Every structure is written in structure tokens, then in C-alpha cells.
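User: Here's a structure from my thesis project, written as C-alpha cells. My advisor, Dr. K., wants to see whether a designed sequence matches the one we expressed. Can you design one independently, without my sequence as a hint?
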């Protein structure tokens, strides 16, 4: 396989899916979460990064599409890999700018949750992303999981 700069890469190079999540945190510390329409699970808003898209723009687009909230994308707070599916997710702390949170085609419920609610509603592998963003430091957290539980 040859890329646009003429560099050759092996055909058997591993393929990973890259997604992003928006850890949208209000000044009072409450965090934006959605109940996904496709699986009924509570997660932070986000989605797959398109090939020609900056991950920060993906965060802004996905949060707006899923919740109606316009955000400013800030610090990268974590990198999370689902070891079972090969999905790498980048989570960015975001600041809400405009809009009232509301359900969408992709989110049957949207809520501003406190830390205890995040821990009780979300699978550990997703709750930790918001908790990491709330406690964000340098460098970003790097974690692996199986889709439900943090493995490391």
C-alpha cells in the first residue's frame, strides 16, 4: 500500500478504528452523558473520526449532533483502547458554550450527571473516561478495557 506521499506500508499493517469522546463538564462539575439509542447504554457523547477529519472537530460535531450542545474542545484527557474490538478512543475535556441538552436520534436521554451518578449509570470502561477528565492532569491517562471493565 502506498500513501499520498509515496511511502510504502505493508498490506498486513494492523487496522484500528479511532473514535473520540467529549467529556463536557460544566462549571458546577456536572458532566454531560447520553443514553445511546442503539444499545441503551449510558456513555459520554462521541463517535468515529472520519478519515479527513481533525479529531477535535469530530468531538464538536458529535456532541452537537447527539445532544444539541455546542462545545469548545480543550485538553486531551485520555486514550482508551478496547482490546476486544481494536477501537482506540481519544477523550477531550470540553466546555459547553451554547444550547440546551436534549435527546436526538442517537441519544434517547441526555443528562448532566454528578460523579456518583456517572459511576452508577455507566459501565466502568466509560465512567472512567469522565472521571479521568474531571481530574485531568498531564500527561493524559492511557487505559485499556474490554468494553465493560478497565484492564489497565
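Assistant: Designed independently from the structure alone:
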Amino acid at each position: 500500500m502506498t500513501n499520498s506521499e509515496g511511502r510504502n506500508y505493508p498490506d498486513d499493517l494492523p487496522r484500528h478504528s479511532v473514535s473520540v469522546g467529549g467529556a463536557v463538564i460544566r462549571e458546577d462539575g456536572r458532566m454531560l452523558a447520553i443514553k445511546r439509542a442503539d444499545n441503551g447504554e449510558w456513555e459520554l457523547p462521541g463517535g468515529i473520526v472520519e478519515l479527513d477529519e481533525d479529531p477535535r472537530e469530530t468531538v464538536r460535531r458529535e456532541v452537537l449532533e447527539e445532544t444539541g450542545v455546542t462545545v469548545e474542545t480543550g485538553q486531551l484527557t485520555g486514550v482508551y483502547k478496547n482490546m476486544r474490538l481494536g477501537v482506540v478512543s481519544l477523550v477531550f475535556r470540553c466546555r459547553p458554550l451554547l444550547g440546551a441538552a436534549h435527546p436526538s436520534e442517537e441519544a434517547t436521554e441526555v443528562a448532566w450527571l454528578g460523579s456518583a451518578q456517572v459511576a452508577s449509570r455507566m459501565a466502568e470502561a466509560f465512567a472512567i473516561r469522565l472521571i479521568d477528565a474531571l481530574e485531568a492532569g498531564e500527561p493524559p491517562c492511557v487505559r485499556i478495557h474490554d468494553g465493560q471493565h478497565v484492564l489497565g
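When you compare it with your expressed construct, this may help: The chain is about 20% helix and 35% strand.
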